[in-house]
Amino acid sequence: MKAVLDTCILKLASRPNFNNPAALIVKLCWDGLLECWASPAMPEECSAVLADQPELLALVQDRFQVGYPLVELDCVQHEPDNRFMECALAIDADYLVTVNTARGHFDQPAYGRSRVVTPRNLREPSDGAGDAAQTLNHPHQPTGLIYGLAPFK
Fold first, then answer.
1. Which residues lie closer than 8 Å to 126 by C-beta, 6 or more apart?
2. Helix, strand, coil share of the chain (percent; to 5)
3. CB 3.0 to 4.6 Å from 125: which of 61, 79, 88, 133, for a disulfide?
4. What is the DSSP letter of 44?
5. Is the CB of residue 43 less than 8 Å from the CB of residue 51?
């Protein structure tokens, strides 16, 4: 499964919470169970958002694959978010994972073949995600906090 993660998902993954769906998604990327992608235009935003999380930033730089969009879009109100959509469309991602689903942001259920889902929705088998729900309910899901990425080491 291919996914593009909005930087808000990465930031949420760094927060201490026993049942953190965003952290689970990042853990699946770390474990190689989910292909996470970024475009060359996204690292600057990731660096700014994750400035206080060097371990998580290193994970993004090390584990995320790079996709090269051939078009520049302007269909999401928050201009930098267009980079995530460009990447999702370029790599034919299964999912664009975000919490920004309000009007003017990622407010469509899908863009091309890429479904827009929240971390929690991606975990729910009832949302029609099918293979995503199976992967995210994999027996190797983390049982505790991922804060500080300690379980990754």
1. none
2. 40, 10, 45
3. 133
4. H
5. no
Whether the model pTM is above 0.85 = no
* Spatial distance between the Cα atoms of 19 and 24, rounded to a whole number of angstroms: 9
- Fill in the amino acid letter for 59: L
- CA torsion sign for 122, 124, 127, 129 is positive
Tokens 């689970």, located at residue:
24
- Mean per-residue pLDDT for 29-36? 90
Give residue 16's identity as a one-letter amino acid code.
Answer: P
Spans of all domains in the chain = 2-139
> What fold is seen in the domain 2-139?
Rossmann fold (3.40.50)
Kind plus residue range of the DSSP H or E element containing 122? helix 119-123
Which residue(s) pair with 38 in the sheet?
A: 66
